[in-house]
Fold this protein.
Amino acid sequence: MNPDVRRTLPATAIPDGCLPWSTEHTRRWTRELPPVWASVQRLRVRGLKLALLLGVLAALGLISAGVPPYLAAAAGLHLVWLPLRPEIVRVSAPALAVAVLVVHPAPVLPVIAGALALAATAPAVSGLRLRARDRQRDAALAASGGVTAPVPDAGGPLRRGRFLSRLGILLVLAGVPLIVTTAGPWDSGEGRRVVVGGGCFVAGLGVTALLSGVLGGRRATALRAAPAPVLRVLTRETRRGGARVFAADDVAGLRPLFTVGVVALDHPKDYDGDDVAEGAVDALADATDIADPAEAANPLFDDRPGPLREAVLYGAPYDGAEVVLVSAAAEPGGTPVAERSSGPVRPVPEAAVRWRLRQAKRTAARRAAEDAEHRGLVEAARRTTVVPVRRWRAGAVDRLAALLMLLCGVAAYLTVDDGDSSLWQEVLVALSGLFGAFRIPVKLRWRITADRTGLWLNGLRRTTHVPWDDFRSARREDLELKLRWSEGGAWTVSAPRWGRLQRRRGVPHPYDALAAEVTAMHADRALRPTGDSEERERGRPLWPLAVPFVLAWLAAVVTVVTGLPRW
């Protein structure tokens, strides 16, 4: 079925006089959006994690430089607030600059210069978004022609904002003990500053979540308090259950106007699926990935889009707004679906559409070429001789990957100075090196064995058997070889790749050849091995090989912590 086939909304579900939000009117709305560099679309989980990571690193770096922990935490939180809560930045950035001038922390000139720069730029950037909101609201109200209608289920229970409010309180309660408890094992001055800074940062995240919950609840309450402006639009369900809204005459779904997380009005649980951009956790993420153009007519933003559906939009949309959507049923003949926003409205800038279109086209071209190459390798694999047992093992590219990981570990170790490195640097290097110590043996000694019963995959903890009937796919994805089987099982290993050089020389990557052979065996029973593999052929768990690497790394870490000679 064509994913762009529209589902029509019954006339009884459309308020009297409700006007279509046509492309002609949406152009004014999209012109009022802030510049793309100041816009925030629906953040993926990794976007939220990146904002938090940058904030934490900035705070730790300032603490190491001698800045008081509460000021360092406040500066780091601004990297989170700027994309997520611009309302805070208008007040917090100037307040931080005043606090820095009063406290006068060392190093004086760099810290004061940074605080003043933040106070000048952050409110200006957030102001662009906040002023654009008013213009977006006015444009939407003008498009509605003054037509309003009561919001469906306006008298029902309102749960918007409860989850984030509770989450915020929990984070504040978690951060306060870290602030007041700085004794015990943290007897060094730097240790105490790191603990206090961490407590301030966690408490600040709690305040962020609490404020997001309160604002979401207030805006949802205001939407229900009086008849709301209405517009006829088209919607499409996203992969994670949100909604993407298009102009009423954009029947091909070419230009999404905004995205918003939604939940049914009669949702039975006391749950509030606030957007990750509001500070929620991974389970609340309803953002979508860039799609594969080979799978849909408008694949710019979703790899499995639902059909376009007619809908009535209640509320004037703008960046951060709360809305209600009454959409046609996803299946023909069903009843209309009423949904409230579970997260803020996030407009999609024109520049983002063009950029993602270019990205999607490049991705489609690359995937088409890779698929063609994969089909050719599979066809070649069909001509190979059937053997009792087939084995694959780590090769030159895997040894190169292990060497690169080892060199990265050595470089990280050398960057930590005896007695001069900060606590957070030592912890970060220790954890990353420990991860590498467990991964290097896997890269050097992985093995895949195929016999008549299926595949045997050795790993760090155990050897996994995957019957042929449970096997699903084998493909190289970027730098990874990934094998998948039923119930979400997966096995991966990664190594460098030089695509252009390989294509020029006509030499496939070892992972591509392996994936093609396994795919051919899975598709054709006659190509599968005919014998049973022995236990020694299947490869053993690799954790014993990891022990020397782990011990060597722990010994290296001890030399840093204790100040012993390194060589």
Q: What stands out?
A: The chain is about 50% helix and 15% strand. Residues 183-187, 268-304 have pLDDT under 50 and may be disordered. The first helix runs from residue 23 to 31.
